Amino acid sequence: MNATTHALSINPANGETVGSYPYETAQQLDAALDRSTLAFRAWRRQPVSQRAELLLSLASALREQAEDMAQMITLEMGKPIAQARAEIEKCAQLSEWYAAHGPAMLAPEPTLVDNGSAQIEYRPLGPIFAVMPWNFPVWQVLRGAVPTMLAGNTYVLKHAPNVMGSAYLIQLAFQKAGFADGLFEVVNVTNDGVSKAIADPRIAAVTLTGSVRAGIAIGSQAGAALKKCVLELGGSDPFIVLNDADLDAAVQAALIGRFQNSGQVCAAAKRLIIQEGVVEAFTAKFLEASRALVMGDPTSATTYIGPLARFDLRDELPGQV
Fold first, then answer.
1. CA 49 – CA 146 distance, rounded (Å)
2. Which residues are catalytic?
3. What average pLDDT does range 114-133 have in this prediction?
4. Are 126 and 116 a contacting pair, CB within 8 Å?
5. How far apart are CA 102 and CA 124, in angstroms?
6. C-alpha to C-alpha distance for 264 and 260, rounded to whole angstroms
7. What would the pLDDT profile of 189-240 be if each residue is shown by its tens digit?
8. Counting beta carbons within 10 angstroms of the beta carbon of residue 303, is it exposed (0 to 12), middle (13 to 18) or buried (19 or more)?
9. Which segments of the chain does DSSP mark as H helices, in order?
């Protein structure tokens, strides 16, 4: 077993293999797309209210297996366990929020046209192909899948290779919640499989959260296939503190903004820009608070900063500095 034939989950805290998942064949990918397409035909006709009820069941299923999911996140990519548990609860609350508010958001809206009245309707597209990252293995998936599926689409997930254990636990939660076969599919494929899925006429739209390089590849392929595409590609976000700021509150916000998930957040505070009048006071407070953060074993509930998710990411840092 190796990385060319299997997706490998390696515990970044100790280097031990968490799981090895064989990449699927072209036939297996084809079967998954068939299941998703078949499920869509029935799902799109199901009343939104019934879809919303299933989201409440999903919230319950997530909470029932929350500890298993949190432990898997911590093992696969090193997120401190307290933050991993919070991620699952956030996903459960997301499902409940869309169950409560989503149907109204999808209701037809009356509007006026030149010759009289009309209405705006929100109709599903079909199977959505999603390429998702490892930094929030459950949240990144569900924040897109939940509203997408409530709107009547089906969801085909291609997760990052190092968090495939988390991907299959998400699929299990959907199954336990009573979602029919094919509504939420996980496909473990290589880049070649991703290209095949994007080009496949059964896929209606594509989304990616990842690097700029990945976005260029996915966006160009989706464009060549004339498919809708949504990309989230990180950034270099500033954290700005002005002279009139509450410095204690600013320091606490900056700690979370920079160090949450061991700094591995696309919207993390990459640059701290402090106005001259408070720069010395802020810096002193920030350094003191930073030194107090517990760094170490991600399975400990008191740890705030764990290992980086992969050894190759760790090894790149000296060069970046």
1. 14
2. 232, 266
3. 93
4. no
5. 14
6. 7
7. 999 999 999 999 999 999 999 999 999 999 999 999 999 999 999 888 999 9
8. buried
9. 26-43, 48-64, 66-77, 81-106, 139-150, 164-176, 191-199, 212-224, 247-259, 279-292, 311-320
